Amino acid sequence: MRKKILIIDDDVYVAELMANYLGAADYEVITVNDSTLAMGKIGSFKPDLIILDLMMPNIPGMSLLAQIRNDATLDDVKVLVCSAKGFWYDYRTCLEAGADGYLVKPVRPEESLTIITNLLTDAIKVTFWGTRGSIARPGKATLKYGGNTSCVSVELTRDRLFVFDAGTGIVDLGHSLIATNRRYKINLFISHPHWDHIQGLPFFQPLYQQGNEIAIHGTGQGNLTLQQVIGGQMETIYFPVTVREFSSRVYFKELAEGDYEVEKLRVQTMNLYHPGITLGYVVTNSSGKSVAYITDNELTPDRDVFNRNRLVKLLEGVDILIHDANYFDEEYPGKTGWGHSPVSEVLELAADARVKRLYLFHHDPMHDDAAVDKKEALGKRFFEQRGLDIECFCAREGHSISI
Question: Residue 22 is part of a domain; what is its CATH number?
Answer without folding.
Answer: 3.40.50.2300
